[in-house]
Amino acid sequence: MVRTCAREGIDNIIDGQKVLEQEATRYNYKQVHSTTGEVPYYRLKRLASEGKSLFREFYIPKPYLSTKDIFALRDQRTVNPYRRISFNRLTVNITGVPIRDKVNLRIAPDLRSGMAEIRFWHKDKLVGTYQVRNEDLNLSNF
Description:
The protein is α+β, with helices and mostly antiparallel strands. It folds into 2 domains: 2-49, no CATH class; 67-141, no CATH class. 27% of the residues lie in helices and 28% in strands. It has helices at residues 2-8, 13-29, 40-49, 134-137; strands at residues 73-78, 84-87, 90-93, 102-110, 115-122, 125-133. Strands 1-4-5-6 form a 4-stranded antiparallel sheet. The protein has a two-stranded antiparallel sheet with strand order 2-3. Strand 2 and strand 3 form a beta hairpin. The protein starts with a helix and ends in a 5-residue tail after the last helix. 8% of the residues are buried.
């Protein structure tokens, strides 16, 4: 890729991206791989049809409801006698959970908005959500 850009006198990122797209298309759909002896696209297609591919369809496993429950930071807290939990100087009211029971936290920070969603799970049931600013969570300790 670098040699192609140098040979063609490309010195900006937009033209470099075009070269990258052309190279990816060539590699994936035309070039015979030296190790497998097959073109990558057709090899993956063949393996999928034979059931030998490691690629699987993504699905959200039960009981979870969202990708925020899967791709999240995780922690656990115990509900105190005031039906609250504390997390990094935050205190959150929890309803529907008996006192002294454990609550699983699924924390999904969003860097673009600067907000995080904390999802509270108790015995495979979503019992609440809470929105908080990322900086209030002090996620550097996680």
